[in-house]
Amino acid sequence: MDAAGAPPHPAAAPALACAGLVVGAARHLAAVTLPAGCPTVTLGPLAPALDRLVAAVAAGTPAVVLASGDPGLFGIVRRLRAAGLPLRVLPAVSSVAAAFARAGLPWDGAAVVTAHGRDPRPALNACRALPAVAVLTAPGAGAAEIGAGLAGWSRRLVIAEHLGTDDERITETTPEAAARRGWADPHVLLSLAVPATADPVPGAVPRAAAPAAGMRADNQPAAAPAGGWALPESAYAHRDSMITKSEVRALAVARLCPRLGRLVWDVGAGSGAVGVECALLGAAVIAVERDPGAVELIRANAARHAVDVRVVPGRAPGALAGLPEPDAVFVGGGGLDVLTAVANRRPGRVVVTLAALDRVAPAVRLLRDTGYTVQGVQLSAARLADLPGGSVRLAATNPVVVLTGEPS
Hints:
Blueprint: H1 12-17, E1 21-24, H2 26-31, E2 40-42, H3 46-58, E3 63-65, H4 77-82, H5 95-103, E4 111-114, H6 121-129, E5 132-136, H7 143-149, E6 155-161, E7 169-173, H8 175-179, E8 187-193, H9 246-256, E9 263-267, H10 273-280, E10 284-289, H11 292-304, E11 309-313, E12 328-331, H12 336-344, E13 349-354, H13 360-369, E14 372-379, E15 382-386, E16 392-396, E17 400-407
Parallel strand pairs: 1-2, 1-3, 4-5, 9-10, 9-12, 10-11, 12-13
Antiparallel strand pairs: 5-8, 6-7, 6-8, 13-17, 14-17, 15-16
Helix pairs in contact: 9-10, 12-13
């Protein structure tokens, strides 16, 4: 069914004409012509409708299910297939395609996520991490809530309400403005990155960002980044070697488990290398750093690697107050007060790197006392270094302890 509730596919009318059972929402059933006496099921809870469909198919009765847009896109096709029903799908234009069309934007580089019937945080984190995201919203997880969650991220929003109906409304706005008002259900939200050169006029709607490049099998954020990770220190701007070494970074990033839909904090970020690599793997990232010079390095490194890292200047733990709840936290700098503040936020993973041995036992005790199971390993790498005459030697790097805490 299209957004106005009519069947647009030419094969829909013949299918309905021979149907022995039709299932759909009340508005869809009212919009079609059915054979005289054809039984119908008005969709509410899905289980009873599935039972009727399974029985009809078993009896050889032709059955039709009416659904909005493309039912293969976060739609009923998945549930029908799971019930073992044979299908022929006659799709209409999806609400996502319609929303991008109304906005006049390409969407081959966009990610499509849903907040319907599930925890909305992964959808919100996708909007924080990626330059172009379409969100299928739900009551309580719509434009107002997502707009509030995008505070601090440079985004513009396009909200498409009642697509294809007489009440259709397309609104371009800022996250802050979206959070201050209500929106009609159903609606589709487009979250689009704003270029850094946008005019910083308070309250103004930023200019459109350049469309994201087409998404291919080798450049999706959920896949391995093209350049890999645990990149050499030369891949980052840093001062006085204040950077997590690549060997340590490899383990730290692995323990943080970054991926699309998760939010990672990089606390005491320094150069931001850990946060940047989490962003390369698809996570939304907040980097907290007290040193103004390092703050600029983090921004430069994020731009160099074409990822979106939100930088929060300030000293932890105070700077952590008010930040959105993390799924994982990397603590690369700060004392036990910082680790206490992090543990009290109850992330699913806490990863701490420590160079001083006298700090290891107190950190382990603190994490255990706050309900975390702790694992730890000391890493000591030796890198090849040239000697005169063409020979090589092994040059030791400083040993570092990596602690990983997970809730008990």
